[in-house]
Write a structure and sequence with these properties.
Distance between the termini: 29 Å
CATH superfamily of the largest domain: Ribonuclease H-like superfamily/Ribonuclease H
CATH class of the largest domain: Alpha Beta
Strand content: 5-15%
Oligomer: single chain
Radius of gyration: 26 Å
CATH architecture of the largest domain: 2-Layer Sandwich
Number of helices: 21
Largest sheet: 5 strands, mixed
Helix content: 40-55%
């Protein structure tokens, strides 16, 4: 399964397209074609949207806005949908948590999203589960575009400028400002047109089937499993080399998480990571010593100093056998590649050869390495390859770790050969 241009030379741009070395004129997109309507927040308004989308035609453009950095968790606070003949609907999922009627109305229509993996879980929480998906970000990656953010792809392929100044605002705000709503409507304004252009380019490059497999993998992906010991993700924790200090990090993280969850505030706004690691290094014995640290000088942090000090005291009082390990939880996967040369030199050589092979294919096919094959699957293959490592057994191994058929077809036999050449 090879892309056409790979053996026929680069595809020439169409007469009305700029050449790759020519800058494209970008026209700012400032107003939705249909204007910005009222936010749909009542059952009667939702019923009108359902009927409009039922009689609409073609794909459904979709986007969702969260309040990351403001609220605890990843709840959706605005859903934007657009379909030909139905226009654009901006829906408040807080007021209308069950949106399944829209999904039923559009049936098996394709949904077009940018970075679908970010929005699909939140949409599913409100009953929106597309039967088919086209991910414009993934399509851009498979086509080898250097920048794959929505604004960049729209500018490069359609010559339109999307403003992104409201991408990180607090979408839980009510009522939502009109300029935010305009921004939200514009995010789905040209998604279908973008999908059509990307689809044409995927077909021309011989990558349409690859893309279809990737889109389906995203659509059907299970929710990510909870990470063991999530407190270890606090910034700066990797620099600590004392188990008691790690216990302070763990205790403060748990206290922060409980407070953030109860108040529905992003944990970093309750207590920054830098404050947690500063306290772990200093290990203060009193609230007075704690607030003397520059990271605890803020009014809100000082007000809760007693609670933070209690969490620190609990960590300081733990017996040695209850302190966290310096190495972290055991995982079933391979160790960090930097240790392979000492622990298993043969595996290290396999990894080097495999990475070189995948990098070469990535450059040849103009597909990013991480999209050509999942890095975790490659590491596992190199650490514990099947015996014997033939094209068939390597293919089976990769399929069992989530590799798509197009990836297996491209890489299984070459990887098996690369391993054999090392013997």
């Amino acid at each position: 399964m090879q892309p056409g241009p790979a053996h026929g030379g680069p595809t020439q741009p169409a007469p009305d397209e700029p050449r790759p070395d020519e800058p494209r004129t970008v026209v700012p997109l400032t107003e939705p074609a249909d204007g910005v309507g009222e936010v749909v927040a009542t059952p009667s308004a939702l019923a009108r949207v359902v009927e409009a989308f039922r009689t609409g035609t073609g794909p459904v453009a979709a986007d969702a806005e969260r309040a990351s950095g403001y609220r605890y968790g990843q709840a959706t606070f605005l859903v934007q949908l657009r379909r030909r003949g139905a226009g654009t609907a901006l829906i408040d999922p807080v007021a209308l948590p069950d949106l399944s009627a829209i999904g039923e109305a559009v049936g098996d229509a394709e949904w077009v999203l940018h970075a679908a993996s970010q929005d699909l879980p939140g949409l599913a929480e409100h009953g929106l589960r597309p039967a088919r998906v086209f991910d414009t970000e993934l399509a851009a990656r498979l086509l080898g575009l250097e920048r794959v953010g929505l604004a960049a792809v729209v500018a490069e392929l359609l010559g339109l400028g999307l403003a992104k100044e409201h991408s990180a605002v607090d979408w839980s705000t009510r009522p939502l400002p009109s300029d935010w709503l305009r921004y939200a409507a514009l995010d789905v304004e040209v998604l279908v047109e973008l999908r059509e252009e990307l689809g044409r380019r995927l077909e021309a490059a011989g990558k349409a089937e690859w893309a279809a497999q990737e889109f389906e993998a995203v659509r059907t992906a299970p929710p990510p499993a909870p990470k063991p010991e999530p407190w270890r993700r606090v910034s700066g924790t990797h620099t600590l080399r004392d188990r008691r200090q790690l216990a302070v990090v763990r205790s403060l993280w748990k206290a922060r998480d409980a407070s953030a969850r109860a108040r529905d505030i992003a944990p970093g706004r309750v207590l920054p990571d830098r404050a947690i690691t500063a306290a772990a290094v200093a290990m203060p014995r009193t609230a007075g010593q704690l607030v003397a640290l520059p990271e605890f000088a803020g009014k809100g942090t000082r007000r809760r100093a007693a609670a933070w000090q209690r969490a620190i005291d609990e960590a300081l009082a733990l017996p040695a056998d209850q302190l966290p390990s310096l190495r972290g939880p055991r995982t079933e996967g391979p160790p960090q590649p930097r240790t392979w040369a000492d622990r298993d030199p043969v595996a290290a050589r396999r990894l080097t050869a495999a990475r070189e092979l995948v990098a070469a294919r990535s450059a040849e096919l103009d597909v990013p390495v991480e999209n050509l094959l999942q890095p975790e699957a490659l590491r596992r293959l190199c650490w514990t390859p099947p015996e014997p490592a033939t094209a068939e057994t390597v293919a089976e191994f990769l399929r069992g770790r989530g590799a798509r058929p197009w990836q297996v077809e491209l890489l299984a036999a070459p990887l098996a050969k690369a391993f054999a050449d090392l013997d």
